[in-house]
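assembly run, all chains below
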Amino acid sequence: MTLSICLTVNGVRKDVMLDDPRVTLLDLLRERLDLTGTKKGCDRGQCGACTVLVDGRRINACLALAVSLDGADVLTIEGLADGDRLDPVQAAFIAHDGFQCGFCTPGQIMSAVGLIREGEAGSDPERIREGMSGNLCRCGAYAGIVEAVLDAQRLANEERRVA
Amino acid sequence: MNLFDYVRPASVAEAVVAASEPGAAYLAAGTNLLDLMKGGALRPSRLVDVSRLPGLDRIEMLADGGVRIGAMVRNADLARDPAFATAYPAVAEALLSGASPQLRNTATVGGNLMQRTRCAYFYDTASACNRREPGAGCDALAGENRTHAVLGWSDACIATNPSDFCVPLVAFDAVVEIEGPSGRRDVPLEDFHLLPGTAPEHESVLAAGELITGLRLSPEAADFRAHARYLKLRERTSFAFALVSAAAALRIEGGTIRSARLALGGVAAKPWRARAAEALLVGATPTVESFALAADVALAEAMPSGDNAFKIELAKRVVKRAFLLATAGTPRRMPALPASAFSSDTGVLSHA
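ok done. output:
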């Protein structure tokens, strides 16, 4: 059974022939498109390391069959920066030490980008913690992560005001 | 994960035909199904992808004041729909207390109704589970069972239904719209999930090929919107299934309860409507004493199925406190921690 799908990944159209329907979006990104920035942690939707945006919404790439996302627009950590210019969320994670080993970081950052787009957390750290509860950090860098998201959220609000 | 045929039908009618084959399963977002398939607990030979069937992704406010929710509406979209969340705040709160933001962004309304128990023995293919393999036995009975059922269980199965969403839906008499090989039918959600009895493998009334196409809530359900809450006790603050939860709603006029709704989650193999407790509250004053009596009645038939006698007392306290929260009034803004016992912004007692 060969399945042909088309995805837009980080702005680039990708036509993919799948020889197996079991391929998840996560495995497609990592094993077939060589985009290894998206991490495989638990592979069961519990840790959030595989978080990417699909059609602008954050989801767990490990629990989505690639074939069922035919036609979708996917944004991964590799597509976030504009050349050498980091996305404000990436810059905020560096500024606030929002990581230690770094394994969960791509998922944390993509989740934070999704959270800010959802527009509900505002400047309330409790809402940010709850909004980031789908992302685990085994190093326990949570304090820095919350500060980074608060800061990035503040920047996003300022940009919105200027625009 | 086993190999399967992947089918993407273009219509509900095509989907029903494709899923009527033995071994077929419907695939929506797959957040529960793929997890179970990765562990080998489920091995469907065909997946019928209904995630993009036309017409199933709408939230429609009906002329009579009720609402119809398409089966493929995503949990987050329903919880964030302003008209829906205003009319049915306890349902929105239950949705936002479930899973994680990533999962809520993709998990569907129909999939939520069809999610399987989180009993570890159901997931573990090395364990005996009557639900997964009829006649195999139940390793939960003599196993780790402190989170298991205290109502409606049998010696064949003591698993619970993990849904938050279904708890207020049952309290508000939601109706499930179903399409199948022999046409369309409506089933009250309260009758949709089955208690285990001697055949726990039969989890719902759905026959082979039948597909949930939507849900309806009546306008009467929205009459409770000023006093409607969902309270969910978990073993960690966020991203955890309920140990015990309750949807409690009141219509209060002149200091007297005119009508009450109560359903419990995490206590049985189905969302548990407590009608006798509701009846007791009609005409009562909304006080802690009234709610304590209602809680006793709601749990009158509860029995521990293992190391879980504490859940009975816990459930009573959750019922009592959910009604106190409902009496205090639906918060104007969704709490930072939806349905959490640790929210302190409503000014009610902070102990259950």
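The first strand of chain B starts at residue 5 and ends at 7.

Residues 346-352 of chain B have pLDDT under 50 and may be disordered.

not gonna interpret more than that til we talk
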